[in-house]
């Protein structure tokens, strides 16, 4: 593993955690999961399975430490680990260089994360509302927000020559 990939990943996760903590609910209390967006961004930019797996574990622990969902600690760790592996596989096998494909990866990553989180929380502890209601009212709107934010962040990093030359030159 290259040190610069680890440093970039840790910076992305730190930025995602801070933004996730300070962002209020935008639309009926729904807020984008910035930590998930930055985790997916890190997985896409580093293109390394070991770092993707470690990123999923670290993002899961960070989410577990900051969750407000009752009993959401273990489901957060499970969902981020699984999501990071699946997003890595989707990105590696799709040759996603177009903006639409990248946006779809962010959308799918959030849907996968939300589904795994709700499913594991249902199995382990139970949910405060039915699965389908939580999925439609929280996961799908968050997926749309995350895909838009992920697309713009990805474009900002890739098209900015100062950032690209200093950090993304591997």
Explain how this protein is built:
- Pfam families: TrpP (PF17099).
- It comes from Clostridium tagluense.
- Keywords: Membrane, Transmembrane, Transmembrane helix.
- The chain crosses the membrane at residues 6-30, 51-68, 103-125, 131-153.
- The chain has a single domain, classed as Arp2/3 complex 21 kDa subunit ARPC3 (Orthogonal Bundle).
- It is 79% helix and 0% strand.
- The chain is built from 7 helices and no strands.
Short descriptors:
membrane, Arp2/3 complex 21 kDa subunit ARPC3, TrpP, mainly alpha, 0% strand
Write the layout of secondary structure elements.
Elements lengths: L2 H20 L11 H13 L2 H18 L6 H22 L4 H26 L6 H29 L1 H7 L3
Radius of gyration: 15 Å
Mean pLDDT: 86
CATH topology: Arp2/3 complex 21 kDa subunit ARPC3
CATH class: Mainly Alpha
Alpha plus pi helix count: 7
The chain-level structural class is: mainly alpha
Order of helices and strands: HHHHHHH
Span between N and C termini?
A: 11 Å
Query: Assembly state here?
Result: single chain
Percent strand = under 5%
In brief:
It is built from seven helices and no strands. By secondary structure, the chain is mostly helical. It comes from Clostridium tagluense.
